[in-house]
């Protein structure tokens, strides 16, 4: 056949063989090819590598003097790995008898590739198979239930890829809660202005009617938010309060807090911040005033004050709640995640919220690996990763530092989307912690072009390389230009919606026009200072 790429030669096995290529220009590494098998029919294979040699340039002859140039002795050999073939029962099988030497090898047709790799169905359109015009779609149920990790070095497109997946989940009305440390995901409201969407068959679209942005800070600090997030401040421990303060109280101050909280725990099952302040105020220590001043800082932040935002409002069918941490101290953010995710898992167990997914950006800050840091949110994220599937609560973790993410969390992620990573420690963590990560794949990860990812999933028969599709929505995590005409002035403050226009704002989430209540806890206990 004229269309043959080459012929199988030499020793073959059930997993690999070599092909003498007729033309080196017609084949590339990672191309999918097919070869006929006497028992299994057409078998899908993939070129793992290509080598070239030439008899004219052997070590002995390259130094010899030649009067004339000999005929070309070039040989091009493809090293091919067997993927397998689908039987009548739909199960992928690798041949039990090696491919016969002398068989011709052809370029695989799209239908064989899709059928063999498991790309024939799926609701989540991620992109196209690298080098082919074949859409890559993942099964939504498996994706959510079995968790996902998106890992890449800074600037390689991890947040962009996360945005693509979130768009697809919104299209399927999957309830979402996004932990957003940098305020990147509020841009999901707005249609994309990017070029090249038609290449992937998508068009600009905003999801403003499905997005609610809440802030644990104030609306003056984070004007992009639709409302403020209030947490249930029940049964806070000493270390919780210390983390909220982001300071290092003296041993005396910690002792006063410990005594106050110990008395409360002996008297009642639950208590709140005001109860703690009351117990501290009753202390006979002169150092109590400094502790009360620190507690008032917490009260003034209003994170634990006022009506708590109902947990049912954070996870709704067809809705996405973004918790934007802009303006929130880094020391406080893990505590917010810990409290929210703990209540969310309990609510899911009781059937108070629908099945959904929690998306955690900068996961190395919220579930750090032992030896790098300690965060109060680590335990609950581990629990969701290990037990969430039973209760219908999925987890997607996104990080630029794979080595610093808790390995127990990463190991539970059945779908791994990996963009370019070059750090030696991070590559070692990927090689050790993720299934199906061969040394060849690790080398590929180091040289991935922008916008290309390696995806490994239970719904796919083997890791595949994918060109991530363009986003329908505006990307909120793009790098800011520093020099040149592309440098932009700071973003304008978004026009506030009137109170009645904040659709489906969660109860307890104050609309942008609302003024925060004035007065600290000390004034409530001892009267105003005027």
Structure write-up:
- With 530 residues, the chain is an alpha/beta fold.
- It is 26% helix and 20% strand.
- It has 14 helices and 19 strands.
- The strands form 2 sheets. It has a 12-stranded mixed β-sheet with strand order 9-8-19-18-17-10-16-15-11-14-12-13. A 6-stranded antiparallel β-barrel has the order 1-2-5-4-3-7.
- Helix 5 (251-267) packs across helix 6 (273-281) and helix 6 (273-281) runs antiparallel to helix 7.
- It is elongated.
How is the secondary structure organized here?
Blueprint: E1 6-9, E2 16-21, E3 32-37, E4 41-54, E5 74-86, E6 92-93, E7 104-107, H1 110-117, E8 124-129, E9 135-138, H2 140-145, E10 148-151, H3 158-171, E11 176-180, E12 211-215, E13 227-228, H4 238-245, H5 251-267, H6 273-281, H7 288-301, E14 320-324, H8 333-349, E15 356-360, H9 363-366, H10 378-391, E16 393-399, H11 407-411, E17 415-418, H12 424-433, H13 439-446, E18 452-456, E19 464-468, H14 521-526
Parallel strand pairs: 10-16, 10-17, 11-14, 11-15, 12-13, 12-14, 15-16
Antiparallel strand pairs: 1-2, 1-7, 2-5, 3-4, 3-7, 4-5, 5-6, 8-9, 8-19, 17-18, 18-19
Number of helices: 14
Please compute the radius of gyration using only Cα atoms.
29 Å
- Which descriptor suits the 3D outline? elongated
Order of strands, main sheet, comes to 9-8-19-18-17-10-16-15-11-14-12-13
Termini, distance in Å?
Answer: 96 Å
The total strand number stands at 19
Biggest sheet statistics: 12 strands, mixed
Mean pLDDT: 85
Q: What fraction strand?
A: 15-25%
| Helix-strand makeup class | alpha/beta
Low-confidence stretches: 489-493, 495-503, 512-530
Helix proportion range:
25-40%
